[in-house]
Amino acid sequence: MNAMPSNDRINRRDFLALATKGLLALGGLLAFGGVLRFLGYAPDPAPPAEFDLGPAANYPPGSRTVIPPARAVLLNTPGGFAALSLVCPHLGCEVRPDSDGFACPCHGSRFDGAGLLLRGPADRPLRTLRVEQNAQGNLILSLN
Question: What residue numbers bound the domain in which 15 lies?
Answer without folding.
Answer: 10-42
